[in-house]
Amino acid sequence: MLYPTLILAPIRGITDCYFRTIFQKYFPGFDLALAPFINPQRYSSYQPKQLKDLLPKENLALPVIPQLLHTNAEDFLFLADRLYDLGYKEVNWNLGCPAPMVTKKKRGSGLLPYPDEIVAFLDQVVTRLPMQLSIKTRLGYESPEELLHLLPHLDKYPLSEIIIHGRLGKQLYKGTTDKKSFARCLQKTNHSIVYNGDITSIEEFTELQQQFPSISKWMIGRGVLANPFLAGKIKGIKQEVTIRQLQLFHRELYECYRELLSGQAHLLGRMKQLWVYLSNSFPPAPKTWKKIKKCTTEKKYLQVTEDIFNTDL
Ligand SMILES: Cc1cc2nc3c(=O)[nH]c(=O)nc-3n(C[C@H](O)[C@H](O)[C@H](O)COP(=O)(O)O)c2cc1C
Fold first, then answer.
1. Pocket of ligand 1 from Cβ distances under 6 Å
2. At what angle are helices 264-278 and 285-293 packed, to 10 degrees?
3. Predicted TM-score of the model (pTM)
């Protein structure tokens, strides 16, 4: 079995540079992270303030690759140049986002039904890009035939890798991943492929490794938000698997956002996004999540989380 490389998936609203840094401190196991996409803004000069999440000084703990959602080649190249100036040697193109706001603009997975436009974009971008390019995608928007049709056309571009989340755009996050179509994709490409989607336990991971022995790179998102010890477990890292570790991690993250964000609504909103997943570490998860969701003041939130961390599971 190939030794796994683990990549932290981008989860917009959660895995920003502060989260990535603090997470890596308490739960080592990831080799690198893909940053959440940068929202396309026409005529933006992308000042360092707007690229805060990607400033090298904020990303010392875990190497990171920036992600762009742009479908206008000139805008993509402009931003890529700014990222190159910051020191980045690779950028990722998002062809997978399923959010209706995004797909209706023919971005993310919304571009997958239009392979000619994808090829035209790459023709304009690849030769002028000062760094490597990778793609993160889904199986298609409407049908897995979309990616199966597209993949052979991508062989001619020097992509560093293609990350495939085995769902369709129209599924959003519902249903299961389609492993059969993922397996068919492997036959249709010469590129290095990264597996992504629903890796939630060591058993699941081992099964996937057996099913796809040629895959060495794995991307995990919600599975590690629900069980932060998972990446370390996969890597066989000796770690202290205790509630205390979760508590320390939570405290540091909370204090960090408390300094950064203005107002308790903003702070609690940010922490609650994590608890959507982290509540799975404290079963029964729906009950835990309900308690957190109800908190409207910092005082109540701290009381409730203290109780959760002090519960014997
Ligand atoms: C709230 C949320 C935000 C996400 N943000 C991004 C993003 O910015 N860029 C991206 O490529 N994928 C994004 N994703 C998709 C994840 O990176 C990943 O592909 C997906 O969750 C499947 O992997 P998982 O089952 O390991 O989480 C997001 C997913 C969720 C649930």
1. 9-13, 36-37, 67, 94, 96-97, 136, 165, 173, 196-199, 220-223
2. 180
3. 0.98
